[in-house]
Amino acid sequence: MKLEIQNLSKTYSNGVQALKNVSLTIERGMFGLLGQNGAGKSTLMRTIATLQDPDEGSINFNGIDVLKKPEELRRTLGYLPQEFGVYPNVTAEELLLHIADMKGIANKGERKETVEALLQKVNLYDVRNKKLDGYSGGMKQRFGIAQALLGNPQLIIVDEPTAGLDPMERNRFYNLLSELGEDSVVILSTHIVEDVSTLCTDMAIIGNGEVVLTGKPDEVEEALRNKLYEVPIRKEELVEYQEKYEVISQRFFAGKLMITVLADDMPSEEFDAKAPSLEDAYFKILSES
Amino acid sequence: MKTVFSIIKNELKQRLFSWVTLIFFVMLAFQMIWYTKGSFDFFANEGVLMNASSILYRNYAAMGMLMIIIIAIATGGVLYKDIRYKSAQWTYALPINDKNFFVGRFLAAFLYLVILSTGMIVGHLLVPYSGIGEASRFGPTPWGPLFHGWIMFTIPNLFFYVSIVFFSIVFTRKIATSYLAVFLVVIIFLIAQTSYETGGGDNLMAYILADSGGYVAAQHYTELLTPSQKNIEMFRLSGFVLYNRLFWFGLALLFTIASYIRFSFKYFIQAGVDKSKKIKEDKKGAFTAASIKLPKVVKQYRVRNFVTKLWSLSKLEFMNIVRPTSFKIILGIILLMVFMQNVTWNAAYYIGNEHPISSNMTYFRLQWGVFVTMLIMIWAGELFFKDKTVNIWQITDSLPVPVWVTQLSRLAAVIGLSFILSLSFILVSLFTQVLLGGASYIDLGRFVEDLLLYRWAFLNFVLWASLVFFVGALTSHRILTHLLCVGFFIFLIVSFDMGIIEDLRVGYGFTPGVEDYSETSGYGIFHQSANWFFLYWLALAVTLVMAGVWLWKRGSDKKWKNRLSLRNMQLGLGSKVVMVAFFGVFLLLMSFITKNVYDNGNFTPEAVEERLDAEYEKTYKYLETKPQPKYEMLDAKLDLFPSERRAEFSADIILNNEKGADSLFLNSKDFTQLTSVMLNGQELTIAKEDAEQNLTAYLIPKAIQKDSSLQLSLEGTKQYIGFVQSDFQADLTNKGSFGSIQEFLPVIGYDSDKELLENRKRKEQGLRRLDSRMADIDDSFALGQNVFATDANWVTGKLTVSTEEGQIPFTAGVLQKMETKDGRNIATYTVTTPQVFNWHVGSSDYAIANGKADKVAYSILYKPTHTFNIVLYQEAIKKGVAFMGTKFGANTVDNYLQLVEIHRWQDDRYTFANTIALSEKEGWVANTEGLQEKAYIHQTIGSGLASLWLQKKLSVADVQGAEMLIMALPEAIGLQFVKESLGDEASQLLVQKKKDKYGKDKNNEPNIEPPLLYADGADYLEVNKGAWAMFSLMETIGIKKFNSILAQWGKENQSEPKRFIDFYLKLLEEVPSAKKESIKSLFEAVD
């Protein structure tokens, strides 16, 4: 089970080049696609989900030429877009049954059974008969994942699923997403590093429409081992430090500005060694680009 | 105040300096040029200028659909944008007073529209330079009305629209309600306007008040103006215009004040937030995701599964439309309005109420069809773009279900909706018919044909929904789809209405004859035409739907190249072939229709017709004074085959040739062919043949040129071929044929009926301007001509008419024999006393009521179901015959009279040799319980009998004033009869009707209204003003004296054509001197 993307490029009519020669190979499991807002993640997701035509390149999933035979991919696709709405006057159960029908589950009993199971799974069973326009943001996202999972898809695309969720909802979502990669290819597109580090076994970072890094999160982290140092400074000193060191990120901690510096050796005594995280790797790439 | 100004300044700055505003402005200017052309064409009079003030006022009141669309899309957003773009949270937190904010936004919206509407002024100023009319059609720029009309109509109208938009948004906190409110206002206006035009004046005040724009009031106002007033008059703010303006301005003020009071930031920020719907979730509940395994499922993607899905989805989409309360409310309002219209509106022509027959109950569709079509188009557009609107498209478009399943299910739902609406119309109409007492004459077939087929009904809705589907696929844009589709629809309606477009082949979804149902003849040839045109549009609609499936944009940013590619399998290869095949069928049908309607000569555009008529006059005018033989005696046999629209005829005609003609010019009507023409038993040599004008000239052999009478033997056929788009071809229509005998037999010499009579048209065709439509009273040549026919004086004859089984034939004269031979009904008529040659012939499936009025045997031929007033007609005939005998000592009709019901497609009334033919709309289905209707029935019979008597007694010269003798005089005698039979009140009711009709119609006089003394055949003049003036003259000198002068004058030189002026002068001598001046001004002057 493998998704292969080769040399995918896309330029919008306003001249924005959203994808530049993107090539990726994604195996079974949870794959994180990390990138800033506007990096081209959603364009890539929509293109894989057959909703958009690229200018060049190819996409192949398990032998299906996605661009030539989109209808075949759709049979095995589960897609949760970044932003989506729902029909206001229908209930969650009604809409899921409808989508199940659309996904080819012809047997009424099977539809009912699978929808009920999914409603349980996303914890919406109790409110299954309520109209969707009364759902909160988190409930709608869970509904979204439920519809994506309908029909046991082999390729699941979830685009920015945790954006806008409170910590508790996000936690629930991690629980949900964590088991998705067992039997399918799951692409999790996000700009939140924690999403990838928490859930994904493989990842890529995309910036300005290009893939700038691929690998496993722990390998990416490991590459920075013994190379990161941090120090609390005053805000006014930042420029001075930036001139002196390779500052890859900065954050406030207890009222002070904590900067992270990339160096082969300890820059000076005032610094402390820092255990690398995926976030550091991400910031490093961003600072380089 | 500072806040208010600041808001206005900011809003106007944002809106005014944009491309959209500029485009709107230019479009509004263009629209006014276009409207001016249409309004100008409504005013037939040659003296009305293209930049007449009346045209400006009407344009400003109408504002145009474009302005309405701009109002709908641009106004609500001014108030609602903070909610829509979620900026209200901070905007409303600014240190601004909420009421000031409301006032600022309100005034900004209003001022924006006011500024934009100056495009209308600019459009009017550009009209003279637009090329739509020659320089001579324009007067000096009417600066006063140019601004006065804008201030009187447009500005208050804009104020009203802004007030209703803000009112609906403030009170519902939804912008969609403002669209609905504008839509409803427009619907009410259109109903008021069309009802005013078709229904007449009984509910005038209601129509005027129902129109928010004041257009009906402006229309009514201009109708009462003379041509010169139309050009320059500034409207006075009085009467109906004042009532209308006050009513709607008051309403606008109320809406504004109510909205002002209701609006507050705290209240309005709740827009779109319905906390009552928010679902509370138990957040502490255990999260059990990991423990639940999803069951295995079998997925199927066979065509059979998709077809099943299509069905189930269609049901689902349909239920989603009809389930919400909002749908039920809209449906309820529509049905209530249809009900009200059927109860209150009545097909009142000259008469009053009609019985609730089924065809009257389906008439509402002609007005409502337009609005329901628009409603369905908008509904369809909304449904097709539903996924985009609620932003679920990324999910649905990535589902493994073909476009044809999802989108066609929506089309099917719209079709279902249209069906339900149409069915509801049937039910509510049936209910109304029963309620009004028409249960016993319910004709279910009428409801099905009118409301479920394609005469502004269900199948038309389907066609338009299909177009929306295609346009939606092309544009992938909801609002653009609405604008294009509704815009195109309105464009077609207005263009056909104004005559800018005539060819129905380009009128998508239009079928011929939708308004032309006749109780006697059904839709006649339009039935066949409508079937073919519908098939033609259906083939296109299927093509459009299939192309729509092919091109539907699934997802976003799809390349046109890919969408148009044959490899785009949204529409399978086989289906693509079917689509092309349907397009081929469409082209084939187009060619079939072209051949049958256009190539066969069943339709000629107005401009071509006018050119041909002008050419005829230019080429053959000399024939008018060239000696030509005239009809004197006729022995004709006419075999009608109405179901085949065919007739065969032969005739032996004795021609009067006292003037020694050397040639014989025969004008035949379209589709008539003379197969044999013999004169005194000899074949004739053709001297000239003009196929375009259907005219053939024969040389009369020298040997017989001096014979005082000639015998012309003719044989010929008339066969209509193909079908029509706008012409009734009523002389040969199944069940209801009726036409002049000269639809078959030729007109000899110059056919003056072909002359263009409107000076504006004459000028366009390079013909000389007419000072009068008839010859001068001293024109020596015309004085020798009979007004009824230039090619005949007094004619006798024998006519044998046969028709198909189940129908009864009739023609002029006294019925001698009615027999059935070889399955055909044959009637033989004779005209033994010489009569004017205005004979007609007809055939239908009549029922007959026979009776006797004194010595006169009469037969009433009527549609079997129209028994409503037969007894009343019989009573009127009996009284009428007695009246004529008492007053004039006359046996009006040689002891035989036939009264015949004819279809509504021709004139209201015909009187010819022993026959009165009355249109079905002239009282056959009237509810005659009221005095007015009873009086009308009496008047039609009385004036008919008088007309028959006068035709026998008077030879009327073909000069000015002739119609006073042949139209006004019988009408006046009819009024006399009504007064005597039913009393003064009854006759005064009819006089008032005539005065009203004259007052309204005289302003549409295309040339210059002549005094009655020189009346020249204007439709509105003699029969209305002429009749009441004659009646007034009768009363002035005393009826007895009037009648005796008439009887005496008729006897003088009986065979010589007479002039009205001579009769008038005789009568004037008897008028008391105190009243002389008023009578003289009535007859010798124009109001």
Structural features, described:
The complex is a heterodimer of chains A (289) and B (1087). Chain A is an alpha/beta fold and 289 residues long. Chain A has ten helices and 14 strands. Chain A has helices spanning 41-48, 70-74, 92-102, 108-121, 137-149, 167-178, 193-199, 217-222, 238-244, 278-288, and strands spanning 2-11, 17-27, 29-35, 56-61, 64-65, 77-80, 155-159, 185-190, 202-207, 210-215, 228-233, 246-253, 256-262, 272-273. Chain B folds into four domains: 2-268, no CATH class; 300-599, no CATH class; 627-749 and 789-926, Immunoglobulin-like (Sandwich); 956-1087, Neutral Protease, domain 2. Chain B contains 39 helices and 20 strands. With 1087 residues, chain B is of the alpha+beta class. The two termini of chain B are 56 Å apart. In chain B, helix 33 packs across helix 34 (962-982) and helix 36 runs antiparallel to helix 39 (1073-1084). In chain B, 53% of the residues lie in helices and 13% in strands. The radius of gyration of chain B is 34 Å and the shape is globular. At the A-B interface, strand 6, helix 3, helix 4, helix 5 and helix 6 of A face helix 15 and helix 20 of B.
Overall pLDDT level of chain A: 91
Into which percentage range does the β-strand content of chain B fall? 5-15%
| Helix run count of chain A | 10
Proportion of strand residues of chain A? 25-35%
Q: Count the strands of chain A? A: 14
Indicate the overall shape of chain B. globular
- Our measurement of the CA-to-CA distance between the termini of chain B, rounded to an integer number of angstroms, reads 56 Å
The strand order across the widest sheet of chain A is 6-7-8-3-9-10
Separation of termini of chain A? Answer: 33 Å
CATH class of the largest domain in chain A: Alpha Beta
Radius of gyration of chain B: 34 Å
What are the segments of chain A in which pLDDT stays under 50 over at least 5 consecutive residues?
Answer: none
Record the strand order, biggest sheet of chain B: 5-4-8-2-1-11-14-13
**Under the CATH scheme, which architecture of the largest domain in chain A would be assigned?**
3-Layer(aba) Sandwich
Q: What composes the largest sheet of chain A?
A: 6 strands, mixed
Mean pLDDT of chain B: 91
